[in-house]
Design goal:
Elements lengths: L8 E4 L5 H12 L3 E6 L3 H13 L4 E5 L5 H15 L4 E4 L14 H29 L2 E6 L14 H21 L4 E8 L13 H13 L9 H12 L10 E4 L4 H4 L4
Parallel strand pairs: 1-2, 1-4, 2-3, 4-5, 5-6, 6-7
The chain binds NADP nicotinamide-adenine-dinucleotide phosphate.
The site of NADP nicotinamide-adenine-dinucleotide phosphate has 29 residues, from helix 1 and strand 2.
Length: 262
């Protein structure tokens, strides 16, 4: 892994919980200055920022609903004023929505798309001017294996559709921004233990739920947030500059995806 992490400033959306939090912690260990974005969890973001500062690092908590373009622009302006130009953008903020054709309703899908897809567009548009000016940037979007449309997990069609959009946009934005020295990649996690998946399940419910995914994974387990963060940090590294337009699957080898079977 690279040792060359000088003068790096990262914005991690949804940075106070789950995969975003693990990413913030790993980037902080490389000495990266962190803008930790939150929407509904200001206390968690402030606490994490204070922990990083107490350990000698640089971090601030910055609020914005990524679905709101004006709020994202204001957040980026504040982060850059306090920390310097953003060199790393991790688009991790996301929500899930369990819905089928029977239960679909337009407001639910609109909100899902506003956060998972529009959010990615808003943040990239907000950081790209300063990245272009410096001819340098690392953008990592957090997608999902659901976005490949080949997993066997039922009930998340519309979430999967937003992640498919993220995969396509990752490749298309890489094409647009590469000439400016900016790489754009995505990480597609398989089932990972976080509030999104463990949520309000009891220990027994989580055991049964996660075991079903572990059984179809080559590595025999589900993901931890640190597993996903390591891949994000790899793609965000200064010396990852020859990797772009890629969607990296991090799922322990899910066989329902690879084998199109159970
Ligand atoms: P999580 O524990 O539920 O955390 C979600 C994060 O997103 C929170 O920090 C939350 O911040 C933030 N967020 C949600 N809506 C937001 C908004 N409108 N604006 C700004 N931030 C917002 O979920 P996670 O599992 O870590 O998921 C992180 C990413 O990984 C998501 O994009 C998810 O789709 C993807 N993913 C997860 C899994 C999995 O199995 N866990 C698998 C594949 C992909 P606040 O609390 O401050 O609102």
């Amino acid at each position: 892994m690279t040792e060359n992490w000088t003068n790096q400033v990262a914005l991690v959306t949804g940075g106070s919980r789950g995969i975003g939090r693990a990413t913030v912690q790993q980037l902080a260990r490389h000495g990266v200055a962190l803008a930790i974005n939150y929407s509904a969890s200001p206390d968690k973001a402030e606490t994490l920022a204070a922990e990083i500062r107490a350990a000698g690092g640089k971090a601030i908590a910055v609020g914005a609903d990524v679905a709101n373009a004006a709020a994202v622009e204001a957040m980026v302006a504040r982060a850059e004023a306090e920390l310097g130009p953003i060199t790393i953008l991790v688009n991790n903020a996301g929500i899930s929505w369990a819905a089928t054709l029977e239960t679909w309703e337009p407001e639910g899908f609109a909100r899902l798309r506003a956060v998972n897809t529009d959010g990615v567009i808003h943040t990239i548009r907000a950081v790209m001017a300063s990245m272009k000016a410096r001819r340098y940037g690392r953008i990592v979007n957090v997608s999902s294996v659901a976005g490949f449309g080949t997993t066997g997990f039922a009930g998340n069609h519309f979430y999967a559709a937003t992640k498919a959009e993220v995969n396509i946009l990752t490749r298309r934005f890489a094409l647009e921004l590469g000439q400016h020295g900016i790489t754009v990649n995505a990480v597609a996690p398989g089932l990972t233990r976080s509030d999104m998946t463990e949520g309000t399940k009891s220990a027994a419910e989580w055991e049964a739920f996660s075991a079903a995914f572990a059984r179809v994974a080559i590595m025999g387990r589900v993901g931890e947030t640190s597993d996903i963060a390591r891949a994000i940090v790899f793609l965000a590294a200064p010396d990852a500059g020859f990797i772009t337009a890629q969607v990296l699957t991090v799922d322990g080898g899910r066989m329902d995806f690879i084998g199109h079977g159970g």
